[in-house]
Specification:
single chain; 184 residues; alpha/beta; 8 helices; 5 strands; 11% strand; globular
């Protein structure tokens, strides 16, 4: 940037495309068209790091709590690649209901977004870990799944009772490590 005084010139020299904030639908389509026109099917693509071929029990009950449908789809896709499936809830209140309704087939692990409407992940975790919904529920590992990467966010997750933390966008290798840690 030191050699370039024009921001547009800098962005064009470093990136294939860019768009301003707030982004409009037209900006996104323009960026996708640019990327599409520069894509080469012969380009060398680095392979994704292969799984360690750990097989999780296919009937493992997982609850994914996130109010964003795209985030849900991404997480469900990553879990599916590991041979797992998950139920979903859109907020903390739905998560508590799902956990209570699970009855004799409890969830093995819960992935909990932190920022959600109606009841956020922090309050839902505190409620589930309090024991008021049952001692077995209190012991279900709850993994924070948040886009917040600011200093202190991890500590806030742990202080609410969450057992671990994974940031979004979700790294498939870290997701697998978390699952191995709590399910195997």
């Amino acid at each position: 940037l030191a050699e370039t005084t024009n921001v547009e010139e800098y962005l064009e020299s470093v990136y294939d495309t860019h768009f301003p904030q707030p982004t409009t639908t037209q900006d996104i389509f323009k960026a996708l068209d640019t990327l599409k026109s520069t894509y080469s099917p012969d380009a060398i693509v680095e392979p994704v790091q292969e799984s360690t071929n750990v097989e999780f029990h296919k009937d493992t009950k997982i609850l994914l709590v996130d109010d964003n449908k795209v985030n849900q789809l991404v997480a469900l896709g990553l879990l599916e690649e590991l041979g797992l499936d998950a139920d979903t809830a859109n907020n903390g209140l739905q998560a508590i209901k799902a956990v209570e309704d699970a009855g004799s087939e409890p969830y093995a692990i819960i992935f909990m977004d932190c920022q959600m409407p109606e009841m956020d992940g922090y309050d839902a975790t505190r409620a589930l870990k309090s024991g008021e919904h049952g001692e077995d529920i209190k012991n279900i590992p709850i993994i924070a799944m948040t886009a917040n990467a600011m200093e202190g966010d991890k500590e806030k997750c742990f202080s609410s009772g969450m057992d671990d933390y994974i940031s979004k966008p979700i790294d498939p290798v870290l997701l697998e490590e978390i699952l191995k840690k709590y399910l195997l």
